[in-house]
Design a protein that fits this description.
By secondary structure, the chain is an alpha+beta fold. It is 47% helix and 18% strand.
């Protein structure tokens, strides 16, 4: 492996290592293996695509890799304009059938939930929420909307339709998901959920906040803590509503991570043991992003409810399908675990509340 690491270092313009004691294996994500190289110039993280992910062979796809890596480069550069040093300052990548990798500045160790207090997690969340708000204020440099694609020269949004009209028309999609759940034979308080969901859906005006470059993956495994300051790595960039992506972070820390703890994809993190810390982070994020604005607090509350609705609908679709694929089982767990989680999600929908100057909704 030393030879491979040195090949990448030389190719990226950095000096080679002298021996194998100067690098070590950091771990594996879903798609990449990561190594830390220790140089006199500083430490770097090298990521190499895995040949197998989610129990299936991964074929080389140049445009997908270019979109992913160039998108990360763009996100890092933009994020560091919002908050200097929140992402790696150095980032380089190469894509070819013979050699594909990314290399970036080493930011530190990932967040250790077992060692973090609730107050620390609140503070990290508040700082991240403030950062997301600053990202919303930056001008959008590229065209398109949605996830990123490679357009031949750069990574840009894969959708060409008017993003404002898209966000307006999303209401119909959420209404359809709600209707599907209401028509099901699932045992939950349907009239109550219908009333709450439709009231909040009618109040949704997310389009007036515009779109931004944001990050869909701020999971604890991508969160670095350095001198009590949160740093972000390995983003999933997307051009979309900043409010929706802020709500996504809150939803993930309050719902996704605690409820998906038994899925193979998440099991090693034992997120269910750290519900209080995760909740504290989501609360801090909400306050950092809303910045005492009741209007923004309501907008976040609406988006969080819609993400809960979509997650419940996705689980419902899985239990009425013939079978779960291997990748779905890795991401979501067994069919019985999906059914159990669905009932928990429906319970959360029944008890969902948003508080604003109009009262409890």
């Amino acid at each position: 492996m030393l030879e491979k690491v040195n090949q990448i270092l030389r190719h990226s313009g950095l000096p080679a290592l002298k021996d194998s004691s100067d690098y070590y294996f950091l771990g594996e994500g879903a798609w990449h293996a990561a190594y830390r190289a220790v140089l006199s110039e500083g430490d770097y993280v090298i990521r190499i695509p895995k040949p197998v992910a989610y129990d299936r062979s991964i074929e080389f796809h140049e445009e997908s890799l270019l979109a992913e890596y160039e998108g990360a480069k763009w996100y890092y550069r933009t994020a560091n304009r919002a908050v200097k040093g929140i992402c790696p300052e150095f980032y380089h990548y190469h894509v070819s059938p013979e050699l594909t990798y990314t290399i970036e500045s080493y930011m530190g160790e990932t967040l250790n939930l077992s060692a973090a207090t609730k107050q620390q997690m609140y503070d990290y969340g508040f700082q991240l929420g403030s950062f997301y708000k600053k990202m919303d204020s930056l001008p959008l440099e590229r065209q398109g909307f949605g996830y990123l694609k490679w357009n031949g020269t750069e990574a840009s949004g894969e959708l060409e339709e008017d993003p404002i009209q898209y966000l307006i028309h999303e209401k119909a999609e959420y209404q359809q998901e709600l209707d599907n759940l209401l028509r099901s034979d699932l045992p939950f308080c349907k009239n109550l959920v219908k009333q709450k969901a439709e009231e909040l859906l009618n109040l949704r005006q997310i389009e007036k906040y515009g779109i931004t470059l944001s990050n869909q993956d701020t999971s604890p495994e991508n969160l670095i803590i350095n001198d009590q300051l949160p740093k972000l790595i390995d983003p999933v960039p997307i051009i979309y509503s900043g409010v929706s992506l802020a709500a996504n972070h809150i939803h993930n820390y309050e719902v996704t991570f605690p409820l998906y703890w038994n899925a193979p994809r998440y099991k090693r993190h034992e997120f269910h043991l750290y519900k209080d810390q995760l909740l504290a982070n989501s609360q801090g994020f909400r306050e950092g992003y809303a910045d005492q604005s009741e209007e923004m607090g309501l907008a976040l509350g609406i988006e969080r409810m819609l993400k809960l609705l979509s997650m419940a609908h996705d689980h419902y679709q899985k239990i009425v399908s013939p079978a779960l694929s291997q990748e779905q089982q890795i991401r979501m767990g067994s069919l019985s675990e999906v059914k159990e989680r669905l009932m928990l999600l429906l319970g959360l929908l029944e008890n969902y509340e948003v508080r604003d100057k109009g009262g409890v909704r």
